Predict the structure.
Amino acid sequence: MSTTPNGGTSYPRTPRTTPTRYKDRASWEREAIHAILDATYLCHLGFVADGAPVVLPTIHARVGDRLYVHGSTGSRPLRGAKGEQGLPVCVTVTLVDALVLTRSAFNHSLNFRSVVAHGTAHQVTDPEELTVALDALVDQVVPGRSAEVRPANAKELAATAVIRLELDEVSAKTRADLAHDDPEDLALPHWAGVVPVTTGYGTPVPDASTAVPLPANLASLATLTAAPDA
């Protein structure tokens, strides 16, 4: 197994990646963190602009121990990440696997998988790395899609930007448990249990101008879900 920059199969623990509550749910295992990042394409990018916190939804893709985040050349985080100093950011990814319902309002919860990554992001300027990053972002949404479409031209590349975050300070946190009521609430006449949450794809609808058959990778999306059994 390949190792992290610190020479092991786990990322180093830092004060920012060590939760203060439910520490038993945290993980720094490289494989577990990568699995969560690779299971979705939606992330939230947090940074500070003009002294105020900003969180933007966008898409991401992982290549090794690097996380690439998509943006526009005119966006604030991309402008801030241009210089050598980079832009301090926090990137989060969350997958909801189940609703956990209890007899009391207080004990309701979610089964989830999440990753939080801290660090300094830099804009990708090397043309070869940018090609790798953009292909990875397209394939993160639909595997194999980058090989089926026209690559971006010079004008499109000028309007597109990608930032790179090294996965040096990162951790995962998960909950995969049953409903837990207080003993005094067990006799209450309310339903308690777990409701699995899945994300699925519908049947692809071709554009009116499309004259080619549906690719196999798109046809297979309808059979996929993004959550395991609760």
